[in-house]
Amino acid sequence: MAHLDINLDKLEMAAGKLRAISHPMRIAIIELLSQGKPLSVTEIYKALDIEQATASHHLNILKSKNVLVSHRDGKKIFYDLRSHTLTEIIECINRCNEE
User: Fold this and answer.
1) Of residues 67, 21, 25, the one with CA closest to residue 47
2) Residue among 18, 9, 23 nearest 58 (CA)
3) Buried b (16+ CB within 10 A) or exposed e, 56-93
4) Taking 80 as the threshold, does the pLDDT of residue 22 lie above it?
5) Is residue 1 part of a domain?
6) CATH code (residue 85)
7) How many structural domains is the chain composed of?
8) C-alpha angle 61/83/81, rounded to 5°?
9) Is pLDDT at 48 greater than 90 in this prediction?
10) pTM for this structure?
11) Closest listed residue to residue 78, CA positions, set 65, 68, 64
């Protein structure tokens, strides 16, 4: 039997990212940011028609799992995707739902 080289730390990181994106509002945030332009918290919560506190909560979860990066410009914090790979995974899942 072949020995599989399983890196449990990598698997736990992957599972954490999947848990982080497994919420409809967080998927909506990822889809918003997948358009390629960093957005402020204000732009995100207005685009999704949610409360600022709700947007901040979801953004913090995504940032803590390294799905998003942020930078401050004056008083505003802008968010962007760390990688577009998760966007591809979401698109794949959406295609599976169409069949």
Assistant:
1) 25
2) 23
3) eebbebbbebebbeeeeeeeebbbebeeeebbeeeeee
4) yes
5) no
6) 1.10.10.10
7) 1
8) 50
9) yes
10) 0.84
11) 68
Q: From edge to edge, which strands make up the β-sheet containing 76-81? A: 39-40, 76-81, 68-73
Measured distance CA(30)–CA(59) in Å, rounded = 10
* Separation between Cα atoms, residue 20 and residue 71, nearest integer Å: 20
DSSP 49-92: T--HHHHHHHHHHHHHTTSEEEEEETTEEEEEES-SHHHHHHHH
Tokens of 13: 């990181």
Range with the poorest average pLDDT among 12-16, 25-29, 56-60:
12-16
The per-residue pLDDT of the chain, averaged, comes to 89
Structural domain span for residue 94: 23-98
Q: Residue 10: in which H helix or E strand, if any?
A: helix 8-21
- Provide the sign of the torsion angle of the four alpha carbons 52, 58, 61, 66, taken in this order: negative
